[in-house]
Amino acid sequence: MSVATAPAAxxxxxxxxxxxxxxxxxxxxxHKFTRHRLAVICGVIVLLLYVVAAFVEFIxxxxxxxxxxxxxxxxxxxxxxFDAEGNFHLQPFIYGTSSKRNLDTFELEFVEDxxxxxPIGLFVKGQPxxxxxxxPGDIRLFGVSDTKAQMFLLGADRQGRDMLSRIIHGTRxxxxxxxxxxxxxFFIGIVVGGISGYFGGVVDIVCQRIIEFIRSIxxxxxxxxxxxxxxxxxxSLQIYFSITVILSLIGWTGLAQVVRGRxxxxxxxxxxxxxRLSGSSRSKIIFKHMVPSFMSHIIAALTLAVPEMIIAETxxxxxxxxxxxxAISWGVLLQEAQNLRSVALAPWLLAPGAMVVLAVLALxxxxxxxxxxxxxxxx
Amino acid sequence: xxxxxxxxxxxxxxxxxxxxxxxxxxxxxxxxxxSFNVRxxxxxxxxxxxxxxxxxxxxxxxRIAGTNDDRLGGEILYHRRRGDGTSGVVDxxxxxxxxRAIRSIRGAEIAMIFQEPMTAFSPVHTIGNQIIEAIRLHxxxxxxxxxxxxxDMLRRVxxxxxxxxxxxxxxxxxxxxxxxxxxxxxxxxxPQLLLADEPTTALDVTTQAQILALIRQLKTELGMxxxxxxxxxxxxxxxxxxxxxxxxxxxVETADVRSLFRDPRHPYTRALLASVPKxxxxxxxxxxxxxxxxxxxxxxxxxxxxxxxxxxMIPGVCxxxxxxxxxxxxxxxxxxxxxxxxTTSEPGEKAA
Amino acid sequence: xxxxxxxxxxxxxxxxxxxxxxxxxxxQLPPGDFLSSYIATLEAGGQVVDEAQVAALRMxxxxxxxxxxxxxxxxxxxxxxGEFGQxxxxxxxxxxxxxxxxxxxxxxxxxxxxxxxxxxxxxxIYSAVRQYSPGDYFFTLISxxxxxxxxxxxxxxxxxLAYTQFGMSVGxxxxxxxxxxxxxxxxxxxxxxxLWIPAIVLAIGGIAGLIRIMRANLLDELPxxxxxxxxxxxxxxxxxxxxxxxxxxxxxxxxxxxxxxxGLVSGSIIVSVVLNLPTTGPMLLTALQSQDMYLxxxxxxxxxILTVIGTLISDILLAWLDPRIRFN
Lengths: 379, 352, 328
What we know:
The structure holds three protein chains of three kinds. Chain A is an alpha+beta fold. Chain A has helices spanning about 5-10, 25-35, 35-55, 55-60, 165-200, 200-215, 220-230, 235-270, 270-275, 280-320, 330-335, 340-345, 350-375; strands spanning about 80, 90-100, 110-130, 135-145. Chain A folds into two domains: about 40-55 and about 165-375, MetI-like fold (Orthogonal Bundle); about 70-160, no CATH class. Chain A is built from 13 helices and four strands. Chain A has a four-stranded antiparallel beta sheet with strand order 1-2-3-4. The two termini of chain B are about 20 Å apart. In chain B, the strands form two sheets. In chain B, strands 6-7-8-3-9-10-12-11 form an eight-stranded mixed beta sheet, sandwiched between helices. By secondary structure, chain C is mainly alpha-helical. Chain C folds into two domains: about 1-80; about 95-325, MetI-like (MetI-like fold, Orthogonal Bundle), CATH 1.10.3720.10. Chain C has helices spanning about 1-30, 35-45, 50-60, 65-80, 95-130, 135-150, 150-165, 185-220, 225-230, 235-245, 245-255, 255-275, 280-290, 295-320, 325; strands at about 85, 90-95. Chain C is globular, with a radius of gyration of 24 Å. The interface between A and C is large, with 40 and 49 residues.
């Protein structure tokens, strides 16, 4: 009986198809990752979030800036499948609402008018938009085709704007700032970490000291300080990029540590020495042997760095020091929730917070799964 | 396995021990029928390749084989002689795991030393702390009294500067000194049986000789028995009076040391002895390894575990049933169909 | 170990110097200097500004001079005279303004740190020893929630719940009657009553993280040989788990204090803004927004030094705990 079948039999209980002995490293990583069901689900969620971020104009049912004072703080519109007579309709629908001011409390009250049904459909014609600011269109993913009824699935804000549409629009900036910031951190981190780990010795010590300096400064005051320094007359785009620069200037240290750790470990690895001894060229060693060895760790570290950026941007914008009107991010939306009485009146103002939590949790689980899978030869 | 000599110098009887673990990949039978005896004042060597289950056998005696040891089968009869003259027989496998009974035996009556003394000691406590703890677990001594006992024991194991070394951390000692400290810690309560799990494998040859000599000396001084677990036949030849050979979780042959080396019966033992490089051979001659490789414990062969590699395998017999131990000498037993055709009846297997 | 401490202490000095430089740069960044916008505000209000007065102010703060001169004047004032400068906004010395607030920030951060420790250590141990039990899954779930919800969001939600469900307004650290009163026992008790909500809000993120770390560390240590050795000597499971693997797993746990404290100090800023606490957070925010540079600079500097001290203490604690570092 040969030995080759033994390890395969050992794994046989858990997977049918993977032959551990012959799969490539990326194959092993993928295999180990997919065993982590939670991480896979979160990966799908993150992917969906980015798809939404790409197509916000199409997916949001309304224009995020469409104001109507009559709709201020309107509660979320309930979706019905059963009408007032108890009949079931396959296509969900809403009722029109009219507002009345309660003369005792001076609050606006919203009453449903159950006489007319407005079905919710897919691919309805809605308010016109320009996808990415370039491509004009007016078909939206879902909505109510009859414009007499407004569908506020997550309620309306103080100016009568649809919260759901605003939150969807916020996805683009909130999710992308994380990505852009992390990519910038990545470049700084890889360079510093790589140099530090590759050369070792004095260079390493100096780099480490620098990193320690930066890490010992509490981040939030530093962010606040830097963000407050941005001139208030800059355009949204300029502010957007400045914020990402600020965030990444502080965030790169974590990535640098990971890269340095891997580079230091790699220097000692026998397989690198073996590659050198067998005559591989330097670039081949770097690209074929070293890079795959730490790429997976880098990817895991990057994924775990994104939620920090998202929270940071949200916090800054929430305080008014980050993005401002007319930019829409979840943090900007949360500014309206600063007022406790408004929140008491309209709890759906906290909904952008739920999105932040969803994104952060999904990214964290995904990053955890990636980190566990990153070194398939461990254990 | 009854012995013709008197029974009252028996210390430990291991009868058909089985130890298995439920792992994610499946159920592993690490020890699958091990039987041997340990007599008072004797050193028994347990020899076999890596992975044959010798370590787990020793740990099963102390019930520290794993976290979930309700998968033990067989009997381990411990013939206890207390200081007050009373004696009795206890089946160690029937004691509640981690209960008071087994804990009072651990360290005090049966003690164990391990292969890698660096990792076997806690890195953040001094060796003195760990030795004194072993004392105070079983003897009602004050801290100072225990410390004196510990220092005395360290001197006995020939550790220089015992009074200062007792406050050293493991990483501050050399490999040989650490192993001495571990021996001191195990023997400080004068156990009747010392389980030595490859105590010299991690040491260089000179230190190895010193440690083996030390164990031999202490064994005589303290009147205890030693179970020496090793894969090194040389260590067996030097220290053991009796030997049990294990393969894939089963004891395949037991004999006194002379008979084993002079007249090995089991094909596996023969192959092992033949594979040892000998002085005086002409250079250029090839070594004689045991052919084939050890099967995975997840995929045990049916019948005799060695049948897949045995040069004298009898097809239709050896791959059908397990041979029972056959007596071939005064103190010599072999489990092989070449010498007898009785089989053990194992659960799930038909007797031939 | 003495040598290690001295090394770390020596390292603190250049760190503090760099921090002071960075703080100074940050507050200098906004375009224009305070004085010109201050004068503009005065003039807009119809006041006439005396030239001599302006010149005097400029001299005092070295505002017309090159940046590094201003820096040395500022740092020099702090080191030699404990003089942090004047707040332009409040027209009072900075030291007066931040004294009590700084102390409250420290107290709040320390209270949170204690909470983090007291809660995450036993839960982490339990989760590791009873891996995969329902309790373990429950705590893991809570940890993940704690990690995913930013603390200021949590503060918002708590405030909202307290307001709508209980009709309480939970902001602030003192009830109105004690807000400006001198310290007394009653005020202290009132303070404690208000302190626990922000302390918990701040602590949750730290708790979540540290539970996971402790659990992972302990899981790494439990199967190790020295644990088997302890068992073979006849120790009870509980005694040997607490004495050996927990002790070893404690080391990386302690080293995380170094990063927990800056996180708490940092986090307390935004939470303080949300919960309206009289700590340094809200003051820093308004100081930055109105370019009150000496106030902002002082707060930045002090908060950073607080962080550095925290890291130093944690490093020393770690060295003391781990004999492998101590005796090297």
